[in-house]
């Protein structure tokens, strides 16, 4: 009897399956290659087979491959602050401080679920192309930054979720869950990282030397630690990054109190700790607590640091010598390495892609319609209206003329913030406004610079070399200008080159590992002072007549200003040496010329017949950010020395007001500005943060009434810099809404185009036990004419708590209500809502007594009502 064809097929499939299983078993020579085992079992087996040198190498952020075991190179350093950073064609969402203004952690989760999808897509694409696992293209992302934005001068505050521990915790937990994927998944989508642990918020200029030896225990546990505790216990975050500075004489990455007693013993954290980049090197170079790299590496690992990041020359590569000298035991190294390898096995990066679902995410998901829509929604929800005199907003779409001016009006990179990727497209604020009214109705002028009160008249067109106009550009496909020249070209206009979007600097020049020399000669017609303005991502050196005027190797482009005196008739040879290094995206900008004063007479004349002026100014990440070589007046090393709006913009706004214009000020910044004078010179103030790729559309939607603003300040806006205190003093006295009411615009504040009335709240109980949850019900009515969203906020204070915070956020809810309608906000307050530091127990605790519960729509006393509750 013949076998049926279907039976033959089944038999063939059965035999094939057995053969595949046999092949798979044969391929799995060692237990660590068996995906059926737990990550811990696999890690322990692999550790038992490694040499001490291999172990040390695996604890470096750029981990070497181990070919004999089929282990690939692995990189721990990628970024995903508000999109997958340092890569192209990704979705760029608003900067985190702007996201915090939404008070919407559900949308934050959606954003970082999208970010993790895009990260996997870029990683998968690179793997398929056979590209090496390198920095900024990995499955480990050092996000989120959950430090407390305690001082508005800190340049990196824009990376945080504001000044409040509760809001930051809610946002941070959502970020981690979105990045790492579902808790019940076999593999993590990415490994997120809570940074910078702990007590870290500037200043940038002293972070490598700063010793914080007077931090109050109460402020430590109530202000600086809650966010990290929440991420450890509520989001299962897989990495914690230790900070640069010292806390009580010990560097954070060598601090056993932080990394052992608190992080592991008190909170139960069981995953890995990574150092901030170069933090272990600081042990023996700036902190001077270790004598050399050998002692520093041993100190860091014994304290609990498992992965070291450094630009070059890893101290951790000295761990074998530290073992030989008895400074550390190999078992101590095994303990750290176990956590490192568990992380890698949890990602599935050592397993066959066929069994890792995340490996199927394709590049088609990058910047898709859904992700673009989420980016727009968050940008809209981040918009925070601070002032609206005489309801000047929303603007009319039928206006004959509207002026759009200011240094940020048509600036794409400003909207991207820092630690960003490069989006497929960006809608500037000018672009957004053009979608609302006819382009013929718009008068545009940059008007002034962000900070400089002069304009540069370019002399770029007056230089030449070897008889040809402009700069001669020579390129090599090596990082040190060695080997054969690839190509020689001419540059005749102010230099602005980038590899963003996979653009070559010139035909045939690689995107990485290349170098260049730019040469020209300039003979001035008169003796005067000129300025060289330029910057680069990579190695940059400016040489004039053989003298080096500037030299650095930077990981982002920070424009600098270099004054230089020239003599009439003297020939000056100008050379620029450039090299792309360290896997950074390559960028270079350069121009030179004469500076002339800004004159607003022509601007005012240009605006004749214009009634409303939209001035788009503020700051940008060219001025505020991480450890930057920028020292304009009011700025130092990426931080600010004062919080006032740069004077050139302030003067421009006054000139516009004096000319009788209605001034709508759109402020773009990642931090609070001292707006006291602007409340007089401006009719409306809209805080727009750094809105991401769709930020310009969101601004326009709000300005013209297509979106009713609902953003609330996640940081206090002070009147000026007068009472800010010592930047390096980490005492919370006088800082944030929790310890001062002397502010211009308070935490939680934000206007709407409609009016909300907060009714009298009721408690489910007025007396509770220390472990009970209570419900607060707050009626809210939209008594205005427009639909809108209100954020109901709940704050708690213990009565007669002398040294505690004035109030502290413990709950909130977004309510979208139609005009004339009412809703009830029901906010649960668990026992932890009443937890404060107890000096008697020297720990956080819920203690008996009377508590005040404040509720309203900002932290300002006039916007709050109160009820009391007793804990038995």
From TrEMBL:
Question: Which is one Pfam family of this protein?
Answer: Fn3-like
- Which domain of life does this protein belong to? Bacteria
| GO function terms (MF aspect) | alpha-L-arabinofuranosidase activity; xylan 1,4-beta-xylosidase activity
Specify whether Signal is a keyword of the entry: yes
Domain spans labelled PA14: 466-608
**Gene Ontology BP terms:** arabinan catabolic process; xylan catabolic process
For this UniProt record, the keywords arranged alphabetically read as follows: Hydrolase, Signal
The family note in this entry says:
Belongs to the glycosyl hydrolase 3 family.
Name assigned to this protein: Glycoside hydrolase family 3 C-terminal domain-containing protein
């Amino acid at each position: 009897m013949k076998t049926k064809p279907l039976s033959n097929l089944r038999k063939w499939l059965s035999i094939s399956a057995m053969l595949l299983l046999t092949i798979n078993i044969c391929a799995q020579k060692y237990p660590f290659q068996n995906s059926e085992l737990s990550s811990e079992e696999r890690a322990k087996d692999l550790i038992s087979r490694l040499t001490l040198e291999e172990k040390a190498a695996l604890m470096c952020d750029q981990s070497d491959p181990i070919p004999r075991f089929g282990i690939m190179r692995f990189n721990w350093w990628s970024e995903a602050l508000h999109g997958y950073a340092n890569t192209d064609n990704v979705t760029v969402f608003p900067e985190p401080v702007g996201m915090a203004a939404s008070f919407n952690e559900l949308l934050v989760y959606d954003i970082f679920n999208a970010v993790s999808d895009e990260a996997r897509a870029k990683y998968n694409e690179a793997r398929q192309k056979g590209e090496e696992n390198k920095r900024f293209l990995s499955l480990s992302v050092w996000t989120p930054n959950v430090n407390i934005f305690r001082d508005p001068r800190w340049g990196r505050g824009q990376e945080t979720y504001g000044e409040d521990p509760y809001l930051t915790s809610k946002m941070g937990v959502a970020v981690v869950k979105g990045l790492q994927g579902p808790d019940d998944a076999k593999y993590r989508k990415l490994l997120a990282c809570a940074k910078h642990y702990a007590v870290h918020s500037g200043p940038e200029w002293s972070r490598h030397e700063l010793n914080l030896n007077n931090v109050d225990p109460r402020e430590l546990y109530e202000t600086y630690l809650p966010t990290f505790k929440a991420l450890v216990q509520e989001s299962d975050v897989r990495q914690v990054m230790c900070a640069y500075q010292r806390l009580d004489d010990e560097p954070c990455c060598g601090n056993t109190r932080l990394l052992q007693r608190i992080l592991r013993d008190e909170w139960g954290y069981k995953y890995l700790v990574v150092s901030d980049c170069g933090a272990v090197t600081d042990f023996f170079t700036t902190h001077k607590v270790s004598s050399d790299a050998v002692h520093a590496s041993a100190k860091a690992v014994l304290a609990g640091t498992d992965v070291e990041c450094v630009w070059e020359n890893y101290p951790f590569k000295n761990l074998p010598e530290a073992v030989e000298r008895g400074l550390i035991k190999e078992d101590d190294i095994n303990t750290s390495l176990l956590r490192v390898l568990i992380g890698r096995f949890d990602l599935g990066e050592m397993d066959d892609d066929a069994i890792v679902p995340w490996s199927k995410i394709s590049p088609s998901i990058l910047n898709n319609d859904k992700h673009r829509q989420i980016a727009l929604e968050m940008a809209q929800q981040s918009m925070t209206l601070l002032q609206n005199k005489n309801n000047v907003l929303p603007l009319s779409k039928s206006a004959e003329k509207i002026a759009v001016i200011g240094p940020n009006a048509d600036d794409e990179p400003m909207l991207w913030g820092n630690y960003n990727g490069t989006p497929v497209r960006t809608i500037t604020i000018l672009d957004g406004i053009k979608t609302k009214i006819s382009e013929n109705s718009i008068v545009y002028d940059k008007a002034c610079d962000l900070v400089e009160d002069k304009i540069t008249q370019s002399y770029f067109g007056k230089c030449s070399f070897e008889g040809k106009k402009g700069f001669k550009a020579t390129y090599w496909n090596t990082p040190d200008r060695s080997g054969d020249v690839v190509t020689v070209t001419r540059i005749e206009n102010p230099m602005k080159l980038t590899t963003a979007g996979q653009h070559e600097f010139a035909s045939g020049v690689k995107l990485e590992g290349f170098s260049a020399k730019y040469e020209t000669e300039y003979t001035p017609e008169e003796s005067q002072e000129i300025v060289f303005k330029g910057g680069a991502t990579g190695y940059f050196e400016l040489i004039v007549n053989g003298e080096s005027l500037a030299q650095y190797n930077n990981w982002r482009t920070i424009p600098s200003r270099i004054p230089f005196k020239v003599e009439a008739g003297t020939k000056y040879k100008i050379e620029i040496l450039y090299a792309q290094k360290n896997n950074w995206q390559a960028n270079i900008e350069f121009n030179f010329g004469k500076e002339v004063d800004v004159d607003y007479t022509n601007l005012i004349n240009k605006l004749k017949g214009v009634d409303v002026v939209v001035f788009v100014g503020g700051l940008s990440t060219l001025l505020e950010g991480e450890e930057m070589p920028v020292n304009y007046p009011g700025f130092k090393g990426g931080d600010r020395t004062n919080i006032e709006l740069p004077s050139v913009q302030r003067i421009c706004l006054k000139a516009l007001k004096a000319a009788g214009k209605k001034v709508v000020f759109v402020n773009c910044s990642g931090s609070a500005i001292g707006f006291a004078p602007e409340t007089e010179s401006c009719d409306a103030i809209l805080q727009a943060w750094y809105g991401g790729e769709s930020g310009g559309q969101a601004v326009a939607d709000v300005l013209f009434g297509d979106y009713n603003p609902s953003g609330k300040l996640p940081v206090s806006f002070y009147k000026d810099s007068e009472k800010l205190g010592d930047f390096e003093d980490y005492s919370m006295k006088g800082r944030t809404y929790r310890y001062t009411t002397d502010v211009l615009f308070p935490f939680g504040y934000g206007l709407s185009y409609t009016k909300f009335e907060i009714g009298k709240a009721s408690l489910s109980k007025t007396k509770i036990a220390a472990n009970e949850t209570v419900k607060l019900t707050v009626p809210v009515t939209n008594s205005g004419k427009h639909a809108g969203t209100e954020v109901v906020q709940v704050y708690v204070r213990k009565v007669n708590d002398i040294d505690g915070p004035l109030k502290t956020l413990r709950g909130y809810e977004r309510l979208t209500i139609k005009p004339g309608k009412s809703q009830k906000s029901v906010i649960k307050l668990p026992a932890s809502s009443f937890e404060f530091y107890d000096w008697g127990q020297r720990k956080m605790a819920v203690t008996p007594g009377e508590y005040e519960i404040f509720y309203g729509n900002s932290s300002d006393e006039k916007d709050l009502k109160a009820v009391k509750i007793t804990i038995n």
